[in-house]
Amino acid sequence: MARLSSWYAKYRGGGVVYFPGRLVGREAELAKMAGWARTARAGTGQVAFVVGEAGLGKTALLELTAETAGSLGMRVLKATAQELERQRPFAVISACLGVDTESADASLARAGEILRGEGRYGMPGGLGEAAGSDFAAVETMLGLIDDLCTQQPLALFLDDLQWADSASLLVVQRLLRSVHQLPLLLVGAYRPAPQGDVDRLSRSLALGNHPILELTPLPPPAVSALLAGLCGGAPGPRLRRMAEGAAGNPWYVMELAAALRREDAIDLRDGLAEVPLDCPQPSLTHLINHRLRYLREEVLQVLRAASVLGTGCTLTDLATVLDRPTHELLSILAEAGTAGILRDAGDRLVFRHDLIRHALYDAVPGPARALLHLRTAQALAGAGAVPERVAEHLLVATSASGDFLIDWLLGSAVPLTSRAPAMALLLIDQALELAGPTDPRRGQLQLYRAVAELSSGRLAEAEETARCALARTRGPGWEGPLRWIIVHASFARGRPDLALVEIRAACGRPGVSALEALRFRAFSATCLFALGRLTEAGAVASATRRAAEAMDDAAALADALHILAAKRFLEAPGTEALELARHAARLTPEPLHPAQRIRLQLTLVNRYMDLDRYQDAQRTLAAVHETTKHTGDIYLPWYHLSCALLAFHAGRWDDALTEIEAGLDPGKRFRMCRALRGVAALISLHRGRQSAAEAHLTAAAAATDSSDITWYYAHLPLCADALADEARGHPERAYARLTAAFDRGVGGHLPGQLSLGLLTPDLVRLALTHNDTTNARRYAEAARRRADHSGTPYHLGDALRCQGLLDRDPDLLLEAARCYHQAPRPLSEAHAYTDAAELLAQQRRPARARALLDQALEVYTRMDAQWDMARALARLRAHAVHRSARRPRSSARLGWEALTDTEHLVAGHVASGHSNPEIAARMYISRRTVGTHVSHILQKLGMTSRVELAAEVIRRRSPDEPPSPH
Predict the structure, then answer these.
(1) Is the dihedral angle over the CA atoms 902, 907, 909, 914 positive or is it negative?
(2) Beta-ladder partners of 212
(3) Please, which pLDDT band fits residue 12 given cuts at 50, 70 and 90?
């Protein structure tokens, strides 16, 4: 609804009063919006969405609220979703934030680079099935908003969200989780769209108790007030009856009044506005056309071209398409503005209402419209526009695009697939329909189609497309890439056996080069390893290593070293295995795909953890976290899992849970959440939170993880299931579960006796409980062999604990506890204290047993391991040993005492004015992890916003205490 010059009507009772800055009949909504803006300005973020049919005043409500936010000192950013851009990922949110690779702002330019997705091209599932799940880009957008909120209270206004792309809506949905922490006002508007993405967003808004303002038609008194302001007098009976046809739609009323004024059909007498008796009731379409018919044909032609370009095109775009100088168009557009067709929107051409644009667009015949879209695409391509903008028009041009579409795709398919794989697939399919069966360009198009499907996670389709292309394409250079797609698609689907068959077929083909064959052989070692055929994998990797060094190929060498290191770690963990892993990770990054390098680095992190080199693990995580954030894919949940395991082993369980929470969203999308759930279940069980543990175990069992990476962590949900069996009072089930895994392997791939060495203390304990001494000795021997190879405190602790339990020797158990303390592995340390205390109690040495029980309880208390505390107390109570009178302080769950060391650091950074991305950079953790920490801090302290938290931290600081480092 447009403004009535600078005056807006407001009715009270039967009278009409005029006030500046008011919308007729929307006073209550404006007041609510202003209140939410003030609350957001004070630090507690607010979300409000306006829903209503076209013409009810959604845009005007957003504009006036934006003015209010600006007057409060908030930074105001606005964008309108475009129907033409629905297929372009992140279109409306990137337009709102000003993301552009050419931006002078480094963070906006960097965000533009990430949106290109070049590091994820050709990576199975790397770009998300519809690109809306591109977590790297989503995180980047959320990080930008965090940064902007730190600089100044922020107000975001997103209009016409019924046209918004799914990726932008995902950003909005994710923003809802943390909006209360930020000085942020988020306002959106949309028309009702059942079963669409915006409808799903609406349901999530309702679930989160975020307000939705439903605009209804204006009541008759408001319509009369509006007419009085438009016509210069109170409406007479006939004018009021005519206005009833508008059904309370204010834009319809305004168009009606404008048309009547243009026809001089309003008679003003004695303050009453009336129309002639024979004045017909016009439809809204008629009213729009009535406005347009007063324009010159030249103006209409320009406006029709602008309607094809879409709302928000620039004058430069229009001049390029029409091949006319901008100065000629300026006078034409000025005429359109005077006629109320266009409205001022800076450097962009925006129609006063989308219904006007549709009327102009629909007036162009279908074939002419297709040609105009093609001409627009050609002009944009010639001007160097980003491929998504060209693709938007080619999608509409359909068969009219002809050879231009095919030739353009051959040069733009790679960047288009990286940015918008769904658009790329649609256009490639169109191009394949246009290209004849003998067209020499068909093979390259099929290759691009297979890569787009692979990048989108459509693995079976990618494999099928590549096979069909192989059967029909004879051109040189195509066979190797197509066979790579088949191999990687098979492997990513969890079928390393099929991938191995394809590799062997590829290596014997004349169309596969010597370098490609070498890389295929290197990857075959990965397939063999995944199948548990370790001897063959080692032999192939060793041969490939020598060949790769001779050919100086880093990609093949990295794969070979990775498998040699993994095999050595299983058989003999120690310095030699670690050096192989470090050698792989040190390879020059240039010839490696970013995903391959991340894989090597995260693998190295876990090797460091196995060998108690926590500082090295932390340094490697810090070095890789930025690249992981930008690459996304399965490496994002893997990164969070690695951080969670590091914290879990060190006894920082709250930090571990924070990492798990941050990793579950990408874990669900990239099928790597079973291990995350397993660690969360373990923590919940140890803390005595049975219902939470059961929820995690149920979710883990239902997960459809398929990546080879998940196989290496199959022991985590296994351990959680076994511990749950014990917690339910069924130790025999736990023992049977662990014994079967140790003997037959877990996940059906890696040998259990090699991969499950960490379970040996639990296996020995449960075996002795079931009087199975023979197997207990077998498990203890496995632990000893592992310790002999590595010599690390953790592995030595396991070996000593196993032997101490077998020999019933408390001194060995205390030596194990010392090793665990050195590692550090506090949970295992406390278990060793408990085991030793129980043996000493049985040996009638209660004083020493009580002292060790107290030591165990102190460690358990630090981790809030309530279940372990209760079990230790029960085990010692059976021998008449009780805790000392001086009990360890209970672990607080609320208040400042409940904050972990990490949470105290995060709170200090918040008080220093750092945004979540800035805190993440300083602490070498992810933005998602920081956001989860902030949420936990606010929950523990009973606060609602970062502003409130910062004020309290500053108040509590001593005068001499410095703020967090900038």
Answers:
(1) positive
(2) 49
(3) very low
